[in-house]
Amino acid sequence: MNTTRCYRGGVLLDEGFSLEKLDELLADEHTILWVDLYRPTVQELQSVADELNLHSLAIEGAATTRQRPKFDRYEHHDFLSAYAVRLDTDSGELATAEVAAFITAKALVTVRKDDAFPINDLLEHMDQNAELTTHGISALLYGLLDFVVDGHFDTVQALDDQIETLEDLLFDDRPHDTDVQRRSFELRKSLVRLRRVVLPMREVVNTLIRRDIDLVPPAMAPYYQDLYDHVLRATEWTDSLRDLVSTIVETNLTIQGNRLNVITKKVTSWAAIIAVPTAITGFYGQNLPYPGFATTAGFITSSLLIVGLSVALYIAFKRKDWL
Q1: For strand 70-73 and strand 31-38, is the pairing parallel, antiparallel, or unpaired?
Q2: Where would you tag: which of 128, 226, 253, 288 has the fewest CB atoms within 10 A of its CB?
């Protein structure tokens, strides 16, 4: 469903109105509009484009999926593309939801490609900062970007928690090689996807706060500066987590190699101990007469040799920590 809202003086004046009412509301110089289009038809998108004089390239960008996060300037409006993200903590997979936005002097028009974007959460976030709308469209744009960037930050924090759990599995006494490998792969893949949508946001917000753009009034500048700081922190955190996952993968391989060395030492030690009775019984099993042949003394001697040498090897290997 489409979402429409009209603000005047920091107060929500009207919402849920039809697109045909845009012309009437735009005629009031004291109002600003937010129009959210969910899977708009060609007719809906074209009617809004005609009303707001939107550029054909921007309309094409809004209709195309998998756009890179960006900010483009046109003669009568600006165009923005961004992604909301959500992490599935059970599987470690990252879900993205694309949103495009047309920014005019009196209206913010967002376009959602699917229902993955949490529009209800965005509405609640907007209501918490409704008083900022006295500063114009920049306040609505800030609300949208702040919601998106907060989602990036929460996702990075959730990934950090997942990596800490992975570290616990890595150094557990019981081997979890398969779980660690599978989880590491999923988290690394999610971090790569997250970086693709977080890193370009630094350029987007940096462009918005430039003075020559003249999109952000002085009263909103501190809010956008704080937003830029959050984008930088999310970007740096994402890069550090990606390096940490790579380190975990390498550490897991090292631990597997060390564990294999320990097992090899133990198997070799037991093989050496078992070789003692094998050698002695093999010697006494030859078909030639020897001292103690077919006598009780020979049996006792061979038994004592087997026990004595085996115990001596066991003690020697134990002292060397091979067993």
Answers
A1: unpaired
A2: 288
The amino acid that residue 316 corresponds to is: A
Amino acid at 77: H
Report DSSP state, residue 219. G
* CA angle, residues 28, 73, 134, in degrees to nearest 5: 35
Task: Give CA angle at 241 (239, 245), nearest 5°.
Answer: 120
Render pLDDT for 288-298 as a digit per residue (tens, 0 to 9).
Answer: 666 766 677 77
Q: Where are the alpha helices (DSSP H) in the chain?
A: 22-26, 42-52, 56-63, 119-128, 137-170, 177-208, 221-284, 296-319
Three-state DSSP class for 18?
A: coil
Alpha-carbon distance of 70 to 67, in angstroms, equals: 8
Distance set, CA 154 to CA 3, 194, 290 (Å): 25, 12, 82
Burial class (CB in 10 A: 0-12, 13-18, 19+), 320: exposed
CA distance linking residue 215 with residue 212, whole number of Å: 8
If we measure between CA atoms, which residue out of 86, 84, 89 comes closest to residue 101? 84
Cα distances from 173 to residues 65, 116, 166, 170, 181, in angstroms, run 47, 40, 14, 9, 16
Can you read off the two tokens belonging to residue 87? Answer: 């992490």
Reported as a single tens digit per residue, the pLDDT across 182-231 is 888 888 889 989 999 999 999 999 999 887 788 888 899 999 999 999 99
Supply φ then ψ for residue 8, to 5 degrees: -145, 120
- Architecture of the structural domain at 3-256: 2-Layer Sandwich (3.30)
Structural domain spans, the chain:
3-256, 263-319
pTM of the entire predicted model:
0.78
d(CA 31, CA 293): 114
